[in-house]
UniProtKB/TrEMBL annotation:
InterPro entries: ADH-like_N, ER, GroES-like_sf, NAD(P)-bd_dom_sf, YIM1/Zinc_Alcohol_DH_Fams. Signal peptide: none annotated. One of its GO terms (molecular function) is oxidoreductase activity. Residues 10-304 form the Enoyl reductase (ER) domain. This is Alcohol dehydrogenase. It comes from the Bacteria. It holds the Pfam family ADH_N.
Length: 308
């Protein structure tokens, strides 16, 4: 099969378009013919060696955890799926080597859900990691109908999905973003505010009594501002700032979860969730896709198109 692989840690230049052996299919896994694969910041952080202290990595290494594709073969105990089923997955395994930047990927059934027909292949590939991150962050702080949520980096890949999930739950959302993304946030149902100096005052102008929950999807020192706006300082969650736990909040490292992924697919089927796609690159141009991700200027998801 064709795949993007690396033989050592490094920047985008170490990503190569190569021939790799077809994956072996474990008893509780299925073999997926990949239609599209999502590109996430964690991918280039792994390739760069930034997570070496946390994750075992083996070379040659195929990056990628997001996938959308068609089941081509099933393991002997993977009774949940059949050949021809369309699936999506956050295919994070205990060790890093056989990722989704490839024509074929073997995925444990615990990482998969059925693809929502309402989403294109590209949109579906961008949903799992970012959608699960947003969903699990919202769940962690018990966000519920009638509350007000402050979402940092609301126009990004995770933030834009968090906005939609919260709005679907009947939550009022105030989202931080640059001014060029304010109309985009309004289209998702959020009330936009510009980040940077004076953020607290701008949020207070919209919510004089403060906010119920705060979701940090960017880091960059927003925790103190968030806690100053929270009615309950503990209802703070971050995916980007390890100090959140010291401040009484919650750190989320997204987990594969079929039930959560199915809930996201159901929202998409109901017309309450879509996946904004920033850019689509062919598999062979994965290095360019990673460079775009590293720039931090994408609005929505970056996706690799693998097969048609």
């Amino acid at each position: 099969m064709k795949a993007i692989s690396v033989n050592s840690y490094g920047g985008p230049s170490v990503l190569e378009y190569t021939d790799q052996p077809d994956p072996k299919v474990a008893p509780d896994s299925v073999l997926i013919r990949v239609r599209a694969a999502g590109v996430n910041p964690v991918d280039w952080k792994i390739v760069g060696g930034y997570l070496d202290a946390m994750l075992y990595a083996h070379f040659p290494l195929i990056p990628g955890w997001d996938v959308a594709g068609v089941v081509e073969a099933v393991g002997v105990d993977a009774t949940e799926y059949a050949v021809g089923d369309e699936v999506i997955g956050y295919v994070r395994k205990d060790e890093v080597q056989h990722g989704t930047y490839a024509e074929l990927v073997a995925a444990p059934v615990r990482t998969l859900a059925r693809k929502p027909a309402a989403l294109s292949w590209q949109q579906a590939a961008g949903l799992p990691l970012a959608g699960l991150t947003a969903y699990q962050a919202i769940e962690r702080v018990g966000t519920k109908r009638g509350e007000t949520a402050l979402v940092h980096a609301a126009a990004g890949g995770v933030g834009s999905l968090a906005v939609q999930i919260a709005v679907a739950r009947g939550v009022r959302v105030i989202g931080t973003a640059s001014e060029r993304n304010h109309d985009f946030l309004r289209s998702l149902g959020a009330e936009p505010v510009t980040y940077g100096d004076g953020l607290a005052e701008r949020v207070r102008a919209l919510a004089p009594e403060g906010v119920d929950v705060a979701l940090d999807f960017v880091g960059n020192g927003v925790l103190d501002v968030s806690q100053g706006l929270l009615k309950d300082r503990g209802r703070l969650v971050s995916i980007a700032d390890g100090e959140v736990q010291q401040k009484g909040g919650h750190m989320v490292w997204v987990r594969p979860d079929t039930a959560d992924l199915t809930a996201l697919a159901d929202l998409a089927e109901a017309g309450k969730l879509t996946v904004p796609v920033d850019a689509v690159f062919p598999l062979a141009e994965a290095a360019e896709a990673v460079k775009r991700s590293m720039s931090g200027r994408s609005r929505g998801k970056i996706v690799l198109e693998v097969s048609s």
